[in-house]
From TrEMBL:
<feature type="domain" description="HTH tetR-type">
    <location>
        <begin position="10"/>
        <end position="70"/>
    </location>
</feature>
<keyword id="KW-0238">DNA-binding</keyword>
<dbReference type="InterPro" id="IPR050624">
    <property type="entry name" value="HTH-type_Tx_Regulator"/>
</dbReference>
<feature type="DNA-binding region" description="H-T-H motif">
    <location>
        <begin position="33"/>
        <end position="52"/>
    </location>
</feature>
<dbReference type="InterPro" id="IPR009057">
    <property type="entry name" value="Homeodomain-like_sf"/>
</dbReference>
<dbReference type="Pfam" id="PF00440">
    <property type="entry name" value="TetR_N"/>
</dbReference>
<dbReference type="InterPro" id="IPR001647">
    <property type="entry name" value="HTH_TetR"/>
</dbReference>
<protein>
    <submittedName>
        <fullName>TetR family transcriptional regulator</fullName>
    </submittedName>
</protein>
<dbReference type="GO" id="GO:0003677">
    <property type="term" value="F:DNA binding"/>
</dbReference>
<dbReference type="InterPro" id="IPR039532">
    <property type="entry name" value="TetR_C_Firmicutes"/>
</dbReference>
<dbReference type="Pfam" id="PF14278">
    <property type="entry name" value="TetR_C_8"/>
</dbReference>
Amino acid sequence: MTKKEDRRVERTKETMRQTFKKLVKEKGYSQVKVKDIVEEANYNRTTFYVHYDGKEELAKDLIHLEMIDFEYEFCKPTRDNPLLDLTLMRPDGTDVFQYIVDNRDYYDLIVMEDRIPNIRELLLGKLQYIFQERMSFVSDKYLEINDDYFIQYRSYGICGFILEWIRNDYDASPSEMARRIINLLHIQSSLMMQLKGEV
């Protein structure tokens, strides 16, 4: 009985998240009200407030779940090869850019002017976390390859790289984007290793 109720709750929340994304893209975050969400999703306000305190909590839930999936996709290459040689990695060895295209209803929101608060900053924060906690580089040439300033350089660079791609309406194929990012990452070191798996 509980499992059925849990599935029903998750379906309701997923409908609200999808509706919220659609409305933010159409109207901008500041213009979306709880009233709009429940009317579009065909729920009542009581149902909404059972699950969320307001649209701010719904936004946090949406971003949190998306960043879990983004991390999963971004870390796939080192999960399959705990010591990864980027010079041998093929563009089809990473699915993260295809994942972004497949979920553009979320990623388009990141470059909006009237966007969800912190949506862009949390993508950057997720990249910083990945390079601090999930992935590490191996280099004889740069002993400080995993120091904070290298982590910030990679994180800001990749975040900007993704944002420009989205702003330009995904003008390069996911495979081409993967090829470019592989080239960018192995400038200082060709070896990347997994620090830890999913927690």
